[in-house]
């Protein structure tokens, strides 16, 4: 009770400090960093007007996700920038550096594969997930590794670049197949490689039709000269190009390269779709979904910014959506049937509606506009356009509008599918719990409490409990136990202590009793648990044990006083549920044991130093955070703790002497 009261007082004190700082916020652009009670940065945002944006978190109502963020804020900092563009780039760098838990975090450039023509004397084509400043040519990104490797496989057949990682001493099979120029034994001029690289670049930039025409011409010439094998190879290459491109859905009148974005939000989740338009054709798409906690459009723009920060292959144009509510209005105006057709496929003809886009102001013009500080589409597009130095549009009518509608509609479909899959998984999980109850002869099986013990030769013995309700883990009800009464490695006595402590508390505080208790082990563990429940506490809760095989995997289910083994099909949902429970309680117990073992090692090492008692040990660990940081500290670093130079040197020497 006192602890809870102290927490409330600490929270009120932090909010009072925040109110004082809010009054001092400037009317300037910049970035803000929200911190929790540990001083950890949990959210980074940008604003045109810091005062308006930061204040908005602490006034008015918010949705559930944002409320969770605000509830964790105990302090904030801000950094003023000279322009909105600087704020955009600073936000990007701060997110990359601090990886705040409530920000949208795009995985690094390893997420997306690229095709790369290496910058070597004898270049080669390869798939890579690392973008380096090595003067190589990069093409992509591709949405998955399969798409990148399929494209490379085709290009390897068509263009004779080097295939070997290490140059061999004699020609390889690729040379005899006509897929390599054999630079290992021949002198190949730079101009030859440049010509091949240019053709590959043209192909990867969308110039498939020109390549096909050239191959068609060569095939006909080979056939006329009676080189039928060569003609067949060229024909196969044309077929391969057609097969690679057959999934393209969009064709536009122009041949401009574009990235088209759409996004949808629901139940605290965001889905983003990117359509890659190259040479007027949609060659690929990328789909991703993630939870978001801030303003929806601000988090969407944060995703886009992170996406392009490591992307060396920029398109000529980027198309962005409006705010979700405005997107919905436009789509309703276009008609539900039309929107559905757009989500399936498009053939956009040359003489469609006249294009109309939202005008994008320049930085100087937009800086003077009065704004709430929340990212609006127009200013966000303007910042991206200035930063990337390419055209960024928000279409309202015409072909480009249809492309954005298609991306947005697909984002909605993707999010709907995600929730349907979650619902199906929950339904299967709930049924698995019911079937397990039927197999055990229980009229109801909703709440399961499972226990596992962990120790090494009896040292630092701990136990852990996990709770599953209707087949789903309920992590807020997990409990950890330090074993108090047992000396040495005794699993049975450990089980007795933990069962006693858990269910004495259940009775004392009138907590919900489980429908089933699961212990990790067989007869001995079951008997220990039942003895405490029946003879000490007067509780008659069913107990079963999970017996493992030689590979430490769930093998059998043993229940009750009779120790009857219940045979469950290995491929059944109920057996899978038991496996999940056993793996989860084992993970939870062993993680807790490692924590305790690490703490005891730190305590024993510090306690062995003369002049260090419990009070100073806690002070040192609180100030430095870890034993490693204490060891790396200088004598001067100890002075704020009122530790003299002589004792500080003793601490440093003692810890360093223990190094192996």
TrEMBL record:
Residues forming the UvrC family homology region profile domain are: 260-533
In this chain, the stretch annotated as Disordered covers 329-358
Task: Name the chain's protein.
Answer: UvrABC system protein C
Main localization category: cytoplasm
Q: NCBIfam families of this UniProt entry? A: uvrC
Q: Which keywords are on file for this protein?
A: Cytoplasm, DNA damage, DNA excision, DNA repair, Excision nuclease, SOS response
All copies of the UVR domain together span 209-244
The protein's assembly and partners: Interacts with UvrB in an incision complex.
Q: Which Gene Ontology terms of cellular component type are present?
A: cytoplasm; excinuclease repair complex
Q: Does the keyword DNA repair apply?
A: yes
Gene3D superfamilies in the record: 5' to 3' exonuclease, C-terminal subdomain, GIY-YIG endonuclease, UVR domain, UvrC, RNAse H endonuclease domain
This chain is encoded by the gene named uvrC
Residue stretches making up the GIY-YIG domain: 27-104
Q: Report the source organism.
A: Paenibacillus urinalis
Compartments annotated for it: namely: Cytoplasm
Q: Which domain of life is it from?
A: Bacteria
A single Gene Ontology MF term assigned here is:
excinuclease ABC activity
Write out the GO biological process terms: nucleotide-excision repair; SOS response
Record's SUPFAM superfamilies?
A: C-terminal UvrC-binding domain of UvrB, GIY-YIG endonuclease, RuvA domain 2-like
